[in-house]
Amino acid sequence: MKKNKIKIGILPNQFLKSDGTFDKPEAIKLCGKIAGVCYDEEGFAHLENESEEKTMRRVNRTLNNGHHSVYDHILINFNLQNLPKILAMVLNNEHQYTTSEKSARYTPVVRQEGSIITEDEERLYNKWIDIFKIKIKSKYGYIYNDDKIEKLSQENARYLVTVFMPTQMIYSTSLRQINYIASWMKDYIDDVNINDLFELKIAYYMRQFIDELYRLNVLDKRLMKNEKYRKLSIFGSDLDKKEEYFGDVYSTIYKGSFAHLAQAHRHRTLDYQMEMLDEKEYFIPPIIADDQMLVDEWLGDMQKVRLVNPQGELVKISEVGKYDDFILKCKERLCSAAQLEIMLQTRETLLKYKKALEESNSPLALDIEKYSHGARCTFPDFDCSSDCKFKEGKTLTRKI
Predict the structure, then answer these.
(1) How far apart are CA 351 and CA 379, in angstroms?
(2) 309-354: per-residue pLDDT in tens?
(3) Which pTM was predicted?
(4) 239-394 placed in CATH 3.30.1360.170
(5) Domain locations in the chain?
């Protein structure tokens, strides 16, 4: 593929060498000293001055017997560039990380030389920005200024752009976790379905990602043993066979777009998995849903870019978590400022949850009722710092 390749850099830290690579031996040596804290009577100060031979014996013992937790003490801040959005989603679905990612809401899609974005995507993206601007201004011009309308138009038009579009983000995780992730990626590559173009493309970029980590001297084969046969958490299978349940914990299945999932799995207290649909379906932005001609045009344009897996393509999504953590999600997503698709799904899950608790006479039925009257600003235990003064936003009936 003649596309811009993934590039990874490391932000300044104590183990960054002058050539931009990672000083793995020194980082591992520090972890070897830390590993002695649990039984050294004199504490870390004593371990700092122990012989290197003694430290390395402890290093070899912990690396080879699977006691890898001490290697979580080394945090690495990666500067990821030209990273496909779907690969950012793969990383962000693993729970041990901090990330700051370039926002599609605030950044227009511009096709550049060597870009994976096709001419059709760029043309349709710009076409629908203009359509959305007209529709949004007509319905909500009284509440949104032109700058806000521009951002909302970009947010909705990007549904037509591939989920492999390049993004940038600062991604911070531990030495152990990045090695584990690389090992899970290797297993994904080895098991890839060669008849599935989507999987093949992901595998292609995973190879680039792993190659960059090797170049930076971050990977260590002793940390990449996958003795528990763990896998990348985002990819599920046979999700339809899972039963929905709502109680102190919950499990639910629904359809959502790639863009929706990219928002949802940032709730790290909840677990998400995805599975491709047998027949392609696409999210229809509610702002155009009442105009059948525009709906038909939207779906027709989606067909033109179907082979690139546009971000508006629907997938099966499994969401599992605890009741309290779901309420925290409601306090984040039931808001006029939240992406509309995830707001609508969160509201739908809330009402389903409420009904199930009432039918089972659960004590939680009284609690969840407090959150069923509108946006988070109506919750008795949430203080809104900035009143949107948007009635349809507060009643969760907005179309954009």
Answers:
(1) 15
(2) 999 999 999 999 999 999 999 999 999 999 999 999 999 999 999 9
(3) 0.93
(4) yes
(5) 7-101+166-215, 119-160, 239-394
